[in-house]
């Protein structure tokens, strides 16, 4: 069999991760890190965009899911289970299918973008819509895991965070150093926790000399970490971060505090504007990712390069983009000229 240039994050960072006997991979990771001329000019400092939507199922969740499902397969599990606002569902379903494991997914009814729901169904998962919010769905997933013996693959599973910290390793490896700041969306709090874990481990091993400040961005209607208290009924167009009681609350708070960062909030209007602005640079992201880009305008003054983590592809939530129906024209040059404004 041919040797692959990029084997996936478990093999690429094996010495940094818990050992697993079976590796279930879709060659996730190694996602692009590209400069943004427009955002760099606006912010007055270099801005890099980490395109996590280029992972196999279209989001950063694949990094943690490859390790969690690899461990489940190594341990002889019958199946996996999770609660999800969408991206975890897609990743769990895909990696469970790859491993030949059954997959059960609990979604908050009516609150998951269709693109993500389609992915989970296509991969053969058993998808159930719970008539409650995400927080209750997660409680049920935990109880079901204990009752039925399926492995919980939400970010409460520590292997998920171990896998996700590989993104911090990649940033340092690509730049040759740690950036001055990292800005990323925060819903359940697992990703910011994982990034900080990765930067700390690289620093302790002497791979980088400094650690970045981490800034977690939440939607104004779903901002428990900004407020410091849970939000009973979170509301935002960014469904991936529509979470009122983050499961990784303490880890997220510690990551922001220890790094010298903070939690920021942005409005839905700012999220939509940032999504449009990124699209004009050729980068299509889902609203939760755009929240991170919107958060750049709220950063405190500082120097050095900033990495903005764009966690999911825009095709995850196509309904978030208005006005996509094309203009109908007659099949003539004259008709095209009238529409396009050509003389």
Fill in the keyword field for this structure:
343 residues, alpha/beta, Rossmann fold, four-stranded parallel beta sheet, globular
Description of the molecule:
- The protein is an alpha/beta fold and 343 residues long.
- It folds into two domains: 9-59 and 160-320, Rossmann fold (3-Layer(aba) Sandwich), CATH 3.40.50; 61-156, 3-Layer(aba) Sandwich (Rossmann fold).
- The chain has 14 helices and ten strands.
- It has helices spanning 9-12, 37-43, 61-74, 87-99, 114-122, 134-148, 158-164, 166-175, 190-204, 224-227, 249-259, 268-279, 287-295, 333-340, and strands at residues 33-35, 47-51, 79-83, 102-108, 126-130, 151-152, 181-185, 213-219, 262-266, 306-310.
- The longest helix is centred in the middle third of the chain and has 15 residues, at 134-148.
- The chain is globular and about 70 Å long.
In short, what is this structure?
With 343 residues, this protein is an alpha/beta fold. Helix content is 40%, strand content 14%.
Spell out the blueprint of helices and strands.
Blueprint: H1 9-12, E1 33-35, H2 37-43, E2 47-51, H3 61-74, E3 79-83, H4 87-99, E4 102-108, H5 114-122, E5 126-130, H6 134-148, E6 151-152, H7 158-164, H8 166-175, E7 181-185, H9 190-204, E8 213-219, H10 224-227, H11 249-259, E9 262-266, H12 268-279, H13 287-295, E10 306-310, H14 333-340
Parallel strand pairs: 2-10, 3-4, 3-6, 4-5, 7-8, 7-10, 8-9
Antiparallel strand pairs: 1-2
Helix pairs in contact: 3-4, 3-7, 4-5, 7-9, 8-9, 9-11, 12-13
């Amino acid at each position: 069999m041919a040797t692959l240039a990029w084997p996936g994050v478990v093999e690429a960072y094996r010495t940094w991760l818990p050992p697993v006997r079976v590796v279930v991979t879709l060659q996730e990771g190694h996602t692009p890190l590209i400069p943004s001329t427009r955002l760099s000019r606006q912010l007055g400092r270099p801005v890099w965009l980490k395109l996590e939507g280029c992972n196999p199922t279209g989001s950063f969740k694949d990094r943690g899911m490859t390790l969690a499902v690899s461990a489940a397969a190594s341990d002889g599990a019958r199946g996996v289970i999770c609660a999800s606002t969408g991206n975890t569902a897609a990743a769990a379903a895909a990696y469970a299918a790859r491993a030949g494991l059954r997959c059960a997914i609990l979604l908050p009814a009516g609150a998951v973008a269709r693109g993500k729901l389609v992915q989970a169904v296509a991969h053969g998962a058993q998808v159930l819509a719970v008539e409650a919010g995400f927080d209750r769905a997660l409680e049920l997933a935990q109880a079901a895991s204990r009752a039925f013996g399926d492995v919980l693959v939400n970010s409460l599973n520590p292997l998920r965070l171990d896998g996700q910290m590989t993104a911090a390793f990649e940033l340092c490896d690509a730049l040759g150093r740690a950036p001055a700041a990292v800005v990323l969306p925060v819903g359940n709090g697992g990703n910011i926790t994982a990034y900080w874990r990765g930067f700390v481990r690289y620093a302790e091993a002497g791979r980088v000399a400094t650690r970045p400040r981490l800034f977690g961005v939440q939607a104004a209607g779903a901002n428990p970490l900004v407020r410091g208290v849970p939000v009973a009924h979170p509301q935002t167009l960014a469904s991936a971060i529509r979470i009122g009681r983050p499961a990784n609350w303490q880890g997220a708070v510690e990551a922001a505090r220890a790094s010298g960062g903070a939690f920021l909030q942005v409005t839905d209007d700012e999220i939509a504007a940032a999504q449009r602005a990124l699209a004009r640079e050729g980068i299509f992201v889902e609203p939760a990712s755009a929240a991170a880009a919107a958060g750049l305008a709220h950063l405190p003054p500082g120097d050095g390069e900033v990495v903005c983590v764009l966690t999911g592809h825009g095709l995850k939530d196509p309904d978030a983009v208005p006005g996509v129906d094309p203009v109908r024209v007659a099949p003539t040059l004259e008709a095209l000229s009238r529409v396009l404004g050509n003389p």
